[in-house]
């Protein structure tokens, strides 16, 4: 098991170093970073036989302070490197996190033409070198400011600390934490005096598979109060959403260009859109979702625009303001980091309605639920809708909603 209590800056290395030059670069990086007292999270050296290795990898990716992705030809075809790159890209919104791609050989063109292209990894500062010594030197230069910087909590750590705070507030004992670890099928760590046992446990809970996590949570009535279980349920709830579309939502929310309209082939309004946004934001309450309903009448676009302005005024606590004043206030809070999303239940609003909404609200991101079947590309693309990949299976959506709703109702009855 990787040391959860290791001090210093944690560096995760993603790779598929099958080629000799890639393997040499990997060894050189690990040795150089370790010598400089970085806490290097590398599967070849840190995962031990018998570990729940997939869980450990998820833990590392969500708790590291920086990550390096070694792109070799083998890495471009690796499903695991793609998954790791997707999850790590999701964390790029954290100012306290650094993601550094290293391009080994002539792989940048192939990367732009591969499934990695939507992650825009060639747009961030990386390293293109063939020589291992040069690669190590340049990486250390890029990491040095991170090592010197006074760090605050990154988004994943804030979520972890929020869950840890719930455990502390409920005065869960060491024995209770051990029981909790066993319930979540996690190996019980050897608690060191300097280790934050609550944070370690919270980190592992957040990386447990959604269905198993909710079932385990409901079994902990002797350790946690129903109120605490409800709070934890809210933190675990977005875990069923694939991180890849969450990455794309985060990217779209940060850049004001294009249509800023995403499609999800889901049908459960007030659940699916909310969960996708919460997954993208690590549960940040400053990312807010508005559900629009008024798609009927002689002028559905005008009705929707009025409804959205009204909801925004209520959300921003500025009732009585006109549209211009509301837009100014909206711009100010967005500049501070808030994000606003408008979701629509099926059927998809028509092309002209979407055009007028985007014109009226360039600050917002629109989330369109399309039902079980997404429209053909020749329909979706002219309408300015980017459907998120991978496609959501209706069975997955209904199962997650059923599990969450049953847990929510069960816990509410106990409170």
Provide structural commentary:
With 415 residues, the protein is α/β, with parallel strands linked by helices. The protein folds into three domains: 10-148, 3-Layer(aba) Sandwich (Rossmann fold); 155-240 and 404-414, no CATH class; 243-391, Rossmann fold (3-Layer(aba) Sandwich), CATH 3.40.50. The protein contains 19 helices and ten strands. The strands form two sheets. The chain has a five-stranded parallel beta sheet with strand order 2-1-3-4-5, with helices on both faces. Helix 1 (20-35) links the parallel strand 1 and strand 2. The protein is globular and about 70 Å long. The model is unreliable at 1-7 and 47-51 (pLDDT under 50).
CATH class of the largest domain: Alpha Beta
**How is the main sheet built?**
5 strands, parallel
CATH architecture of the largest domain: 3-Layer(aba) Sandwich
Q: Per DSSP, what share of the residues sits in E-state strands of 2 or more residues?
A: 5-15%
CATH topology of the largest domain: Rossmann fold
- Helix-and-strand structural type: alpha/beta
* Poorly predicted tracts of residues: 1-7, 47-51
Distance between the termini: 37 Å
Helix and strand sequence: EHEHHEHHEHEHHHHHHHEHEHHEHEHEH
The percentage helix is: 40-55%
